[in-house]
Design brief:
Length: 156
Amino acid sequence: MEMLFRYNWQVRQEWLDWCNELSIVELKRQRTGGVGSILKTLTHIVDVEYSWICDLQGKPDQSELFQSVDSLEQIITLSKRFRPEISDYVAGWKPDMEQHILHAVDKDGRPEQYTYGEVMRHVIAHEIHHIGQMSVWSRELDREPVSANLIRRGLA
């Protein structure tokens, strides 16, 4: 699982670098799919990753930190800020944590339960899903997307 987190972080950094070449207008432009814009989608990716890992650690939600994000620099800062904590948690993952139960509440206030392993795999798949949307948008902008290839990244 750790390798897939490192894959996501590597691809995310490449997308952040890719985005440095876009204007703030282009980053904020409403688009079809994703969560509406490149900027909002990148913010959402970092927010969801950090929020779920906080949940697994029993830490309070920090979503308010993401509500005022208005620039690529802010996303880069938040991504870098939370990476060490997330990386430590992922590196410390033990097989016996797989079936631990996370008690959560859905959007309607109903209780839900997830295994920790399910949450970890969701976090991985969530970012990959949104990065696919970024690839579509890059083609719409007549730009080459970041490679999603896992091979040749030195992650084995």
